């Protein structure tokens, strides 16, 4: 892979999102659903949040991608997740899985492993504790946040991707993306981002938007993560605190452009 | 009708809201509930969000209006909606229905038609795809967002209002309000508003507040839509993006006044 | 008690929160969950929101405090509340109860009384209508908001605290805190705060963070209430309206420091 080529692909795909305005179906948590919807709009896609078992079939018929976030999993939602992924696989639309809390809560870990084993998950995006937990690497975890430094992240991303034939994204101080072979590292993150809840969920929404317009999940993962990283960096420069950062993030995603991608992207392999 | 008279009525009612501080009971979705609550406070009313079947009876006894939004309808909520409207009708308090997704999801459309057929719905407020779908006019729809230009909006608003003896509001590039005979057009909207999720839900909350203080639903619909339109216009002038717009909207609703209504209202018939 | 000593304790505990980064488990409502999570992060703690009965056991094993908010109580959540408090009591971690709506809705009042009677609730924090209602003092109430002036607040706080062997916090124009004997009054509130939904919920989250690092619930209550009061005061100075106030609050909690506590604290007995 080549850094310039990757950035050019992201720029191209971002224009495609604005043109096509893909519908991104979210099954997500009530804590960050509003931010996920707003960031989806900001990148130029159209969000829909539907998790009623009686409704998802119709929505998935229209959807261009499915973002599955298990951050407030209720008993009912488990079945809905499986059903939604099954329907998405049938239509061959990309599925992005955000395994929130899989590092801390055993039924979430089990659900994630079921999903990865029995269905096509195009991209899984978690923090280091979540990803390590799924492939049974010991880790330290605190609720839904990872306490890890990024040690072993590249290898963990590669291992999970290889094992389940998917793209793995690990977000944190640095972001790691792997297809099971290569590892892409994106280094645009800023510490203040960790003070805002839902930045991971928002990244998954952006990945969902990118996945809905192009042919390769690795590019979609890079597109979503890079957009979040650059927007976060620009937002943090102006924000006096995490409250301001939260709304600036949305504005910076809305105003991202070719020039910013080219100038700011920190990608290595 | 007369434009100046309408604006004066809105100004008068807005003062009444501040004096009376009516309680606006919401049964609504988890994605935009926070914005709905905050905009209700900003106009001077008091929001309450209760959807537990065991609790709604007590709340409706105190409520001055009921705003029903089916944007995250769960199986349980269907029964709650019917029960809530029945109780609201018994007490003769205004009911505002936001048929989110009725253009895309058949069980939502069915629920909306049941509500309109079997109960008194004072005001229904949706986008063009939702309203057309309810009266079986073919339309294009994308999830919960309408893809339509505003073609045929006036007629659709009039037809639904006439058929179900209600007031219909269609929001979009322009806003159309009809009582089944006249059509009021409000043209204060700005494109950036479409980049913020929940502006429709917030408009319904404002309509709910206006409906709780005066005698005619048409005036309440105009009051809510006009307030949102002017606040949106003023907010968009200052906002660098949709993140900022979201909070500025709340501030502008809070600071709306006689002068702004008179100077900015764009109403035609 | 002594005012300077109290403020110094708050300053010390706030540093402890940053060092320890305690995990604050919330069972809370969908309307204000995002703000609760973000304010928890801003003070330096780590939020987790889990209310699935199958998941709470694992989370409470890791948690440093439990914040229970019944603002969108569903039938399922009742059982979860009881279970969560039982588990928290077993582990002897502090439990903060926010009895949202207990002044208006009888099943909420009953649940709160059960919790207070049968379990250890370290701190209960409500508005005046809620607290009075729990100890059967007649009051006026409007939905989930209190209409009371603060008349009788000190006595009500003391009575409830004494009766149930807990710490009572009553928030409003002034804030009252009692351990059943002394009454602490904090007078940093500003009227604009009442125009933002969820400030009470956010205060409970802050109290939760303070309760997780020190040995006395009275200090934790003072810490949370004082932090919210000072942050609110500083935020209101800059905010042009309630929309801006909402995000400034988060920023001001993030930037609170020794100097601001010492200079601005308005505490009396």
Structure, described:
Three copies of one chain form a homotrimer. The first copy, chain A, has 269 residues and is of the alpha/beta class. Chain A has one domain: Ribokinase (UDP-N-acetylmuramoyl-L-alanine:D-glutamate ligase), CATH 3.40.1190.20. Chain A contains eleven helices and eleven strands. Chain A has helices spanning 3-20, 33-43, 56-62, 75-91, 106-118, 128-134, 153-164, 199-211, 217-238, 242-254, 258-264, and strands spanning 23-27, 46-49, 65-69, 95-98, 123-126, 141-142, 145-146, 167-170, 175-178, 183-186, 267-268. A nine-stranded mixed sheet of chain A has the order 2-1-3-4-5-8-9-10-11, sandwiched between helices. In chain A, strands 6-7 form a two-stranded antiparallel ribbon. In chain A, a hairpin with a 2-residue loop joins strand 6 and strand 7 (145-146). In chain A, helix 3 runs parallel beside helix 4 (75-91). The longest helix of chain A has 22 residues, at 217-238. The model of chain A has no long low-confidence stretch (mean pLDDT 94). Chains A and B meet through helix 2, strand 2, helix 3 and helix 10 of A and helix 5, strand 6 and helix 10 of B.
